[in-house]
Amino acid sequence: MDLLTIYEQMGLSREVYSRGEAVLERLADRFRAIDQTAEANQAKVLLSMQKNRVGANHFAATTGYGYDDDGRERLEKVYAGVFHTEAALVRPQITCGTHALTVALSANLLPGDELLSPVGLPYDTLQEVIGIRPSPCSLAEYGVTYRQADLLPDGTFDYAAIRAAIHEKTRLITIQRSKGYATRPSFSVRQIGELIAFCKAVKPDVKIMVDNCYGEFVDLLEPSDIGADMTVGSLIKNPGGGLAPIGGYICGTRECVDRCAYRLSAPGLGQEVGANLGILPAFYQGFFLAPTVVAGALKGAIFAANLYEELGFRCIPAAAEPRNDIIQAVELGSEAAMRAFCSGIQAAAPVDSFAAPVPGDMPGYDSQVIMAAGTFVQGSSIELSADGPIRPPYAVYFQGGLTWQHAKLGILLSLQKMTDGGLAAL
Ligand SMILES: *Cc1c(COP(=O)(O)O)cnc(C)c1O
Question: Is 96 touching ligand 1 by the criterion CB < 6 Å?
């Protein structure tokens, strides 16, 4: 049985398949560049594992307090080696990206301090953490104020507004690398570096945190390489490589990471406690695979943009633009189109392929959200997934794919469902 016969059994027509092949012919150079970045990042991870002398004994499970957990400590050194930071906190006790960011913020902001976002409104779930949308236990309740400088209409930094927003109380500046559920651009590490340099010139002792969600291994540099005091992300996104079933990381200065550890466990205990419960093989192996998994996801994002833009849909980033994260937004213009797109992604999944995604309420989000995710790890968005809030411009955010081949099929099936429903024309 050949490929097209198998694809036909999965509901993919020859017309949609051919359309995809025509688009792919133009992408060879970009795919080669992605493979080169993956090779360098793979080497970076390997070098750190080797330098830190990772051994089979480091995969052992610990329980209880988890004192003297060499595997856990070694993994944190491996992360610190890759991110080039003094310290790292990498734990299954950090439940998700929002939790990691919450730990980083609440550990490094005290009552009377002010937090500044110089890149506009932060990611939806962070709004409750900060108290932009009132929430019990928000930073606002603890007397931490918040200020924001919006981006200019062209998506660049408003340096005058940022300078004006930094004052005596400004203690921490949070920079979100990826666009999240906004339609602004995601920032390159170089752009973030310029912003950090500007902020530190205005106020040398201000701390900078970068929300690095979806950005890891897209570039050769990470925000920690260009001056961030804390670089923060989720293990069920890029750095978990699809294998980590939970977790988050904070890489940064010893001073900041120590405070994060005291906030996560307890003052006085810090990094010394936290049993690994047998999860370390997935953390190590996932980190090892992450550079190539991210490469596959990037190819999927570029393929999606090139396919959909040609059919008249606005894509962010645009088809020809360079990539700063693995997310591809496609403005579909209607709820019906969002449902069709997501049903195609779901139909391509190895798990729950028979399910129909429907919009629903999600904790931390203020509009209904539709999600397609037939994933091994619940809600994992380094696995092939698509989601978006049901609000204009009805943009679907597509990301992930543990293999490029799977990402490709998901995108083709999304287009199949759109054409079947009369929502896109080839
Ligand atoms: C996903 C994401 C988060 C939150 O991570 P969760 O693991 O979903 O809690 C925060 N910021 C950005 C930019 C993200 O993409």
Answer: yes
